[in-house]
Amino acid sequence: MSYPDPRYFAEQGEVNARYRPARQEAELTMGQGGTVVSYLATGATTNGLYGLYRWDMGPKPSGPSAHFHRTISESFYVLSGTIRLYNGDKWIEATPGDFLHVPEGGIHAFRNESGEPASMLLHFAPGAPREAYFEELAEIATTGRQLSPEEWTELYLRHDQYMV
Q: Most buried residue, 38, 80, 83, 144, by CB count within 10 Å?
């Protein structure tokens, strides 16, 4: 393995770092379950390299069913609480410091079923526009809008989400 081809060609470096203070308000609330999502780095802000999100879950059970992605890998790093991570074979009771990487095509899921708040970092590479997917799910949960099976299939396909 080697370094990738250069993406920056100027002779001198530039000031272009992005800072996000911890106190900044989360961008998204996911329904009534108490989950809030902070967009730490999106595909748009990383030139498509990756997306990084802080996923703070309330005590109510929450999380997606088993699925896989064709175009992106996904990683999970537990910050606090206990989060059930599915590695395609079994559920793992993950606690702070635990990490799971899922390459493209890998079946996975996550759940907070502990009855306590839990927090993790989600990382996607490359930086797909996952925010639109998260925001549509939040809108569906908040409004109670009912989707037909065909509408769910279309939503998932549009966002590289293949349910198993």
A: 83
pLDDT tens digits, one per residue of 125-140: 999 999 999 999 999 9
Locate the domains of the chain by residue range: 28-163
C-alpha dist (Å) from residue 98 to 78, 82, 124: 6, 10, 17
To which residue do tokens 């009855």 refer? 115
Is residue 91 within 8 A of residue 119, CB to CB? The reply is no
Q: Which two tokens stand for residue 150?
A: 């065909």
For residue 122, the Cα-to-chain-centroid distance in whole angstroms is 4
* Tens digits of residue pLDDT in 37-54: 999 999 999 999 999 999
Q: Cα separation of 161 and 163, whole Å?
A: 6
Which CATH architecture best describes the domain 28-163?
Sandwich (2.60)
Separation CA 51–CA 16 (nearest Å)? 18
